From TrEMBL, chain A:
Domain of life of the native organism: Eukaryota
Main location: nucleus
Record's keyword terms, sorted: Centromere, Chromosome, Kinetochore, Nucleus
Name of the protein this chain belongs to: Transcription factor CBF/NF-Y/archaeal histone domain-containing protein
Subcellular location: Chromosome, Centromere, Kinetochore; Nucleus
InterPro entries named in the record: CENP-W/WIP1, Histone-fold
Gene Ontology terms: biological process: chromosome segregation; kinetochore assembly; mitotic cell cycle
SUPFAM superfamilies noted in UniProt: Histone-fold (SSF47113)
Any GO CC annotation of this UniProt entry: kinetochore
Family, per entry: Belongs to the CENP-W/WIP1 family.
Gene Ontology MF terms in the entry: protein heterodimerization activity
Cross-referenced CDD domains: HFD_CENP-W
Lineage: Eukaryota, Fungi, Dikarya, Ascomycota, Pezizomycotina
TrEMBL record, chain B:
Species for this entry: Karstenula rhodostoma CBS 690.94
Keywords per UniProt: Chromosome, Nucleus
Protein name (database record): CENP-T/Histone H4 histone fold domain-containing protein
Lineage summary: Eukaryota, Fungi, Dikarya, Ascomycota, Pezizomycotina
Gene Ontology terms, MF aspect: chromatin binding; protein heterodimerization activity
Compositionally biased intervals (Acidic residues): 154-163, 321-337, 347-366, 386-396
Keyword Nucleus part of the UniProt annotation: yes
């Protein structure tokens, strides 16, 4: 089996630790889907922010600036 | 000269004979002077810095919006290219254009603080003096000036009552002749005298001009005199003695003078040690010999002292060694010194294997010859204080009697290595969640591949830097924490113990990422690789069938597509 896009066990472990509940078999795929959407959003916003600040590429600063809003946006 | 003649024709009641006689009256001279003095064009002050200078901010009149000083062109407006869209922007732009279009005399009237150039002063003066003798024909441009001359009148009168009058009647040709021009310029009491050759800036010193950095001052290249208050810190730490001006002839060089008496007092107060410091602080070490040779003569010998002294405190020698020894003995209890040596070497040897030093106490005789190359081998559990000691113990062996400063210099890099190791460990090490579970941080490699993919899809060529990756990893940790809590809440609400796909779908729906028009499956198709997609497809179908018929219909379609 080729390497998957992400370490499934790790994601499961992380979410499980935070939720204090077990995950069903494929829930982690959907979680990862959500995570991918989130990363897309973060990088999009960070790209905008860094462009506005005149930086090249995506800087850590812009990611930090943007991430709170994105997290809020993705809060259920 | 033809210009002045023309001007004189304007002043009609004057006899024509006066027109030929240039230097006879004050009025003539002043008028001519005013026409010679540089006109108040903006680049005169703005030359060095194109941007918005502090100066422009200070000068700005209350009606700024209507009369921008330099016109719209001088302002850095980042978004000027784009056509204004909002009504406010449109209005603002129109106003600015109007302001730019207003003729000069109208613009001038707009504020109380007006541009005051030497030219203006001269014109005012000429008008004031000429009022008695000749009537002035008011041109349209004179209205504001007349009004302002009333403002300035007392000053000018005060200044020019007695001594200044003769200089105004100078012949024009001598104007650029430095010495003859103003032997005794009228000087305001507060300000220091100007050097002689600021021919067209003469009255400037009575007016408060904006301050600006010395490097930006456009007047610096001409050797104009400067106001003292333009130079920021000078007045505070220096006492001015007027002789220095004549020595230097230039304000710029004025800086070198301290009042010698003050310095002497300071020296007497604070003693010899601080003297070097004082000089270093005031930056006056080299200058001291410039002005006041006699005064500094006695201090001259001590000038050879270094400004910064590295003091190696004598009393630290013995206690330092004692300290180290004491610590080791505390740690290892009854072990005598030779076993200590062997032990330390084994510690260093085993340091690569990340053994805690407690285990090392067993071995006294292993490999005393080894480990000389592993001086910096870090020990993890031992405290900060003892670690460098262990690393330095070889030095202790070699340089028993030597200065502890060496040890100290060797010690400085040592604490970093354990810290670094600890950090590396912590990244691998598990974080602890709210419920006391340990969990790993999200792997950076995954974040990197994902983020690079997204960035590439956004069309930017640059890759993710290390800092950015770190921030992203942290962000994803936050994200998973939040997601975990949300999912737990959903599952609890459903009365389940386990988090299921439906919870995640509910989460996606709640954030409007799954809507009626876009299923989670289409999202997954966009973002996830095929094998994950397949696993996803196999499982959640029955649940969806129960819950949503609509989505049920979508899924098989996509099945057929593939």
């Amino acid at each position: 089996m080729p390497q998957t896009l992400y370490p499934r066990g790790t994601v499961k472990k992380i979410v499980k630790a935070h939720a204090n509940r077990p995950l069903s078999k494929n829930a982690d795929i959907l979680i990862f889907l959500k995570y991918a959407l989130f990363m897309q959003e973060v990088l999009k916003e960070a790209g905008i922010a860094s462009k506005r600040a005149g930086e090249r590429g995506v800087s850590a600063r812009s990611v930090r600036k943007v991430r709170e809003g994105c997290l809020r946006k993705f809060k259920g | 000269m033809s210009e002045s003649a023309r001007k004189k024709q304007r002043v009609s009641p004057r006899a024509s004979g006066d027109a030929t006689d240039h230097s006879s009256t004050l009025y003539n001279d002043l008028h001519r002077l005013a026409s010679i003095a540089p006109k108040p064009v903006t680049p005169f002050r703005r030359a060095a810095s194109a941007g918005v200078t502090p100066r422009s901010a200070t000068i700005r009149t209350p009606g700024t919006a209507r009369t921008p000083r330099g016109g719209p062109a001088t302002r850095p407006l980042p978004a000027r290219r784009a056509a204004p869209t909002t009504p406010h922007a449109i209005r603002a732009l129109r106003e600015r254009a109007n302001a730019a279009r207003t003729p000069g005399h109208v613009r001038r009237r707009s504020g109380r603080v007006q541009r005051e150039t030497p030219r203006d002063f001269l014109r005012n003066l000429s008008r004031v003096l000429a009022r008695d003798t000749q009537p002035i024909e008011p041109t349209p441009a004179t209205h504001p000036r007349n009004r302002r001359s009333a403002l300035d009148l007392p000053d000018i009168d005060d200044d020019d009552d007695e001594p200044a009058a003769p200089r105004l009647s100078m012949p024009l040709d001598d104007m650029y002749d430095d010495d003859s021009f103003n032997e005794e310029p009228p000087r305001p009491s507060l300000l220091a005298p100007l050097p002689d050759y600021d021919y067209d800036n003469g009255t400037v010193q009575s007016v408060e001009f904006g301050r600006r950095a010395r490097s930006e001052d456009p007047r610096l290249d001409r050797v104009f005199g400067r106001r003292i208050s333009e130079q920021f810190g000078d007045l505070h730490d220096l006492t001015i003695n007027g002789d220095e001006y004549e020595l230097d002839g230039n304000f710029i060089n004025r800086r070198g003078t301290l009042l010698p008496n003050d310095l002497l007092e300071q020296e007497e107060e604070e003693g010899d040690d601080t003297e070097a410091e004082i000089r270093a602080l005031t930056g006056r070490r080299g200058r001291a010999s410039d002005g006041d040779l006699g005064v500094f003569g006695d201090a001259e010998g001590e000038d050879e002292e270094p400004t910064f002294r590295f003091t190696i405190p004598q009393r630290l020698h013995v206690p330092a060694e004692d300290e180290e020894d004491g610590e080791e003995e505390d740690e290892y209890g009854e072990v005598d010194e030779e076993t200590q040596r062997g032990m330390n070497e084994t510690i260093i040897e085993d340091g690569e294997d990340e053994q805690p030093p407690v285990d090392l106490a067993y071995d006294d005789d292993t490999a005393p010859a080894l480990a000389s190359d592993n001086e910096t081998g870090p020990l993890e559990i031992a405290g900060w204080e003892s670690e460098p000691d262990a690393a330095d113990d070889e030095d202790l062996q070699a340089y028993r009697g030597e200065v502890s400063a060496i040890d100290r210099s060797l010690q400085t890099p040592a604490p970093e290595t354990p810290a670094k190791k600890r950090a590396g460990r912590q990244r691998r090490a598990l974080n602890i969640s709210r419920f006391g579970h340990e969990y790993p941080s999200f792997p950076a490699a995954t974040v990197k591949t994902l983020a690079n993919g997204f960035i590439k899809s956004q069309g930017s060529k640059s890759k993710i830097s290390k800092d950015t990756l770190e921030a992203l990893v942290q962000t994803s940790d936050f994200f998973f924490e939040q997601v975990g809590e949300d999912l737990a809440a959903y599952a609890q609400h459903a009365g389940r113990k386990m988090i299921e796909e439906s919870d995640v779908i509910a989460l996606l729906k709640r954030t409007r990422q799954v809507t009626d028009s876009s299923t989670y499956f289409s999202l997954a198709q966009k973002l996830l690789p095929r094998e994950l997609l397949q696993q996803l497809r196999m499982e959640p179908l029955p649940k969806l069938r129960r819950q949503k018929r609509k989505r049920m219909e979508v899924v098989p379609e996509e099945d057929e597509d593939e």
